[in-house]
């Protein structure tokens, strides 16, 4: 009997030990489980590269509203393919190709890249930043390099609100960020954004120029419409401030909602129709203007002179014959244009068959030629916004006609292939070159003649601190050629 009790006791101990061991393994598996992955698209070339540079561009114009029936947060999907933003992506890749082929810049270093589509949204921008910092597409940060190569800096993220969101995180780790389209003056505050610089003038100079323009033509009664973000909010406050000393009066001030609302768009339309102002400043990105432009056409609002911000004055999205009766004669200040050798040929060198996993190129092809690529599940031409000017939801954007692969890019007329007005596109190129010249200057340092004390030491690629790269950027001749704050 005593022997049986002893066996039962040992069996119980074994059972309890097995339970504890299983529980420990479950806990271990729980802590190691991938909690979620971001749904990000883009381009990566980091294999066997010493340094990489990150990039963020609006390859789409918006994210699809979240399904409220799903309680667990999920990474949003995007819609509204943006040919202009896609061209910016490709321009960054072309610039890397150009730099890597040169012998006078970083001759012993091949630069790689990691580029993401941020869908012109803050959530996607932050997802991209976390991937740069964490090392993989997890939504729990580990703050290590994202590709195995050293992250030398980031180009982006597009609009001012996007760059602000990105810089709040990147600045914590002294990661250099170069903006190509962010004009919000507060980004020049080195206390808040110590590692952010940009290759485009800020909105103070732009708003002042608009006031001078209005005064020059003797237009005192002005309507103001802005986007509902940092870009638009700063503009309306600054314009009203400058109006006070220029004998100009704001007839009204309205806001384009960042999240589509038929009621809010209708309120803007009602204000325009009721106002006696015939000159209206429209300060917003071309990606924010879509619903308002459609509503203006729908209500046949003509006879206005529009003053455009730099974000849409040269946008091909509005430079269409069907919009001329409504927006013809628009005046605005544009970013200086430039020619980029070899870019046109590079942009034409694109085809979905080259890489079946290249989702962005497949969607580009489908959207451009209005056909469905065989075996593709990538939707296009969808619009989940509810009841845009009474059209209802356009949830199905797949064409019944299949792409053959024989479609001719030469027959297209869209923003992606238009290289006649390279403005923000050139800013992208300048941003990449600014980082490359800073790294080149760092690589040519001679020990004993370096800028760092004590001992006039140097920093070396890839073993350098982020602040040392920032120093080289500020002291570079290339940077002094780039227009910063006036």
UniProtKB/TrEMBL annotation:
<keyword id="KW-0325">Glycoprotein</keyword>
<protein>
    <submittedName>
        <fullName>Vomeronasal type-2 receptor 1-like</fullName>
    </submittedName>
</protein>
<keyword id="KW-0812">Transmembrane</keyword>
<keyword id="KW-0675">Receptor</keyword>
<dbReference type="Pfam" id="PF01094">
    <property type="entry name" value="ANF_receptor"/>
</dbReference>
<dbReference type="InterPro" id="IPR000337">
    <property type="entry name" value="GPCR_3"/>
</dbReference>
<dbReference type="InterPro" id="IPR000068">
    <property type="entry name" value="GPCR_3_Ca_sens_rcpt-rel"/>
</dbReference>
<feature type="domain" description="Receptor ligand binding region">
    <location>
        <begin position="88"/>
        <end position="472"/>
    </location>
</feature>
<keyword id="KW-0472">Membrane</keyword>
<dbReference type="InterPro" id="IPR001828">
    <property type="entry name" value="ANF_lig-bd_rcpt"/>
</dbReference>
<keyword id="KW-0732">Signal</keyword>
<keyword id="KW-1133">Transmembrane helix</keyword>
<dbReference type="InterPro" id="IPR028082">
    <property type="entry name" value="Peripla_BP_I"/>
</dbReference>
<feature type="signal peptide">
    <location>
        <begin position="1"/>
        <end position="22"/>
    </location>
</feature>
């Amino acid at each position: 009997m005593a022997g049986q009790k002893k066996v039962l006791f040992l069996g119980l101990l074994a059972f309890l030990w097995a339970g504890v061991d299983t529980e420990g393994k479950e806990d271990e598996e729980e802590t190691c489980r991938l909690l979620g992955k971001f749904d990000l698209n883009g381009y990566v070339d980091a294999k066997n590269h010493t340094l990489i540079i990150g990039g963020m561009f609006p390859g789409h114009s918006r994210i699809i509203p979240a399904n409220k029936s799903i309680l667990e947060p999920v990474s949003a999907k995007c819609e509204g393919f943006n040919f202009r933003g896609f061209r910016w992506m490709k321009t960054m890749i072309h610039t890397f190709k150009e730099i890597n082929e040169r012998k006078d810049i970083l001759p012993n270093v091949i630069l790689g890249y990691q580029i993401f589509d941020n869908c012109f949204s803050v959530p996607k921008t932050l997802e991209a930043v976390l991937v740069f910092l964490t090392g993989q597409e997890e939504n729990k940060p580990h703050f290590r390099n994202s590709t195995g190569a050293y992250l030398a800096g980031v180009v982006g993220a597009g609009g001012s609100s996007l760059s602000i969101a990105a810089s709040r995180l990147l600045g914590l780790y002294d990661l250099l960020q170069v903006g190509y389209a962010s004009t919000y003056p507060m980004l020049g505050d080195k206390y808040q954004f110590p590692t952010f610089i940009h290759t485009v003038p800020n909105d103070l100079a732009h708003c002042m120029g608009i006031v001078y323009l209005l005064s020059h033509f003797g237009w005192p009664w002005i309507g103001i419409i802005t986007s509902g973000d940092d870009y638009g909010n700063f503009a309306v406050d600054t314009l009203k401030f400058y109006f006070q000393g220029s004998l100009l009066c704001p007839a009204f001030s309205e806001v384009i909602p960042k999240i589509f609302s038929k009621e809010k768009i209708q309120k803007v339309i009602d204000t325009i129709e009721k106002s006696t102002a015939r000159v209206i400043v429209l300060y917003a990105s071309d990606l924010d203007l879509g619903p308002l432009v459609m509503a203006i056409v729908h209500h046949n609002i003509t006879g206005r002179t529009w003053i455009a911000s730099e974000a849409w004055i040269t946008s091909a999205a509005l430079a269409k014959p069907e919009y001329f009766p409504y927006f013809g004669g628009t005046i605005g200040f544009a970013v200086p244009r430039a020619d980029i050798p070899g870019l046109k040929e590079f942009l034409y060198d694109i085809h979905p068959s080259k890489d079946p996993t290249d989702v962005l190129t497949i969607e580009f092809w489908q959207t451009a030629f209005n056909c469905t690529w065989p075996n593709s599940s990538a939707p296009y031409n969808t619009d989940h916004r509810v009841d845009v000017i009474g059209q209802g939801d356009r949830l199905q954007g797949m064409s019944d006609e299949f792409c053959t692969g024989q479609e001719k890019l030469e027959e297209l007329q869209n923003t992606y292939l238009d290289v006649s007005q390279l403005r923000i596109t050139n800013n992208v190129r300048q941003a990449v070159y600014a980082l490359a010249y800073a790294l080149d200057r760092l690589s040519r340092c001679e020990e004993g003649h370096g800028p760092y004390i004590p001992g006039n030491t140097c920093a070396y690629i890839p073993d350098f601190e982020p602040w040392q790269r920032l120093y080289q950027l500020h002291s570079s001749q290339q940077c002094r050629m780039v227009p910063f704050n006036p």
